[in-house]
Amino acid sequence: MSRSYAFRTSDVFTSHAYAGNQLGIITLPQSNPLSQSDKQKIAQEFNLSETIFVHDPDTSTSPAHVVVDIFTPYSEIPFAGHPTIGAIHHILTHLLPSHDKVIVDLKAGAVVGTLDRDTGFAAAEIPQEFHRHARTPGWDAVVASQPGLSGDGGKAEQLALVSIVRGMNFMLVDLSEKPEMLTRVVVTKSDPATGDDLDEGWPQTLVGTLFYVRKDDRGDGVHRFDQRVVVIGLEDPATGSASCSFTAYLALEMGGANAVHRFELIQGEQMGRKSVIATEVTLDEGGKKITKLMMSGQCKNVMKGEIEL
């Protein structure tokens, strides 16, 4: 006998349909569970960068808790940004519409989520154990992965290999010196950094590359960047985990006692799926550690239906 599950798709980090980053959302009632292999098959069928499985809310606590599993077409991952924002928006819009806060239980930890119903912005306090790895591949490794960046005398101003949580790793490549180089980034199967570059004890579940260009200062205290992210042989229109890794790194570089650094990141324009990702990073009194990392964005529901097994 076949089993059916309700699904939706949502475009995350945008207020417009057919922009932002697509997310598959499967509602998973306790009475009709799925095996790990079934979840992986469904994620492969959707073939989006991530598909989430949202379990029944536990409303015996306040705020309510909801377990959410995140899958790529290849494996389960502990955390990703746009699935987290999409999950919060989905839960507080469709499953718990009378609630203003929810705790989303991910493999990476518990995430407190809220929804501003006036603006449509879902916000999450992101679990993090930010780490900068001792080894960072050099510019030669970047050019070997991205031949279009060679020549013209261009070179990254800064390179760093960082992780926001264990298993989510990104190499950061600063192209601000020659912003036109950002347009020459292409999807490749070869990445500048690999699992061999990570410090011991940091799993290589995912290793991607974020290329960025600093935008003009508007004088409002928000640091703005254009960025592109290539990961698992794909370009992503919005990558929250990479954005959190990136802005955590920047905030610590800027420092400041009890400083609050705000960022706005534009991604996906070259793909025709513009995304706007906002983060806010708070540092401790020594300006050396992160005490709080918030990420927010809008979502737009696109499709709904049933999937059968």
From TrEMBL:
- Which residues does the Swiss-Prot or TrEMBL record annotate as the active site? 50
Record-given protein name? Phenazine biosynthesis PhzC/PhzF protein
Organism this protein belongs to? Dipteronia sinensis
What Gene Ontology molecular function terms does this protein carry?
isomerase activity
Pfam name, any one: PhzC-PhzF
GO CC, any one term? cytoplasm
The record's SUPFAM superfamilies line, in alphabetical order, gives: Diaminopimelate epimerase-like
